[in-house]
Amino acid sequence: ESSTSPILIQACSGCPYTIGFDGTGSTNNTACGDLTYAWTIVDPTASTTNESTSTINYDFEECGTHTVTLTVTDGCGNTDSEMVVVVVSDTAAPTVSITGSPGNITACSACPYPATFGSTVTGGATCGDITYTWSMTKPATAADFSITDEPTVDYSFEVCGTYVINLDITDGCGKTAHDSVTLEVSAPGAPTAAFTYSPPSPDSGDVITFDASGSTSGSFCGIVTYDWYWDDGNTDLDITDPIITHTYTTSDTFDVILIVTDGCGETNSTSESIFVGGGGS
Question: How high is the pLDDT of residue 233?
């Protein structure tokens, strides 16, 4: 007796598909004793595999039509057979997508931009290892990937130019897939210096708070130092906190200059004239 519905699977030599067949549901006339089992599996090349247990497992890996036949025989010599058809087709190729691309960025050697590229694989063989190969086209002086055979790679961008990040994978059946992303690295623009102060009408002896938090930077690393020139013979240089205080001891108009430096060494300045009163009642 033949099964009317073939079993459809995908497999390959590197990724076989295992099916278990169970003949213990076969019945017999108890007067004729126990059943014996004879399995015959014929593959697409007409090669035959024979088994004699009640249950078997078989690894399908060759494309084409396979027939699996079970013949049971009782002690009286009576026989019965059942056949199933297994159709093996080649596995579909996988697809891969690169994840984590930062897009177009700004960076420099003093302030590299760190990025982590990942991968998402769908489809393809259901077993076996996936091999990963990362590569890139890049500016001549830029470094290569330090690791190229993992699902995820890290890279620090510091050289301006065009980068094409490539990923090629091979699945357990030898099928391949490719993806790439392109990004531009450009030099950051100059920062912009800005500050406010309080109180707005200070007198000599007052503690004046200067706040440069409104300064901006085109660099990923931001503003790294603030240089203050107070116009009274004093300076505060290489300050890392945008907020600072200063006290004038005399009444006058002072031209306060702020110079900011970003992570790529770019600078910008701004100044403001501040009138400091004499105080008193």
Answer: 97
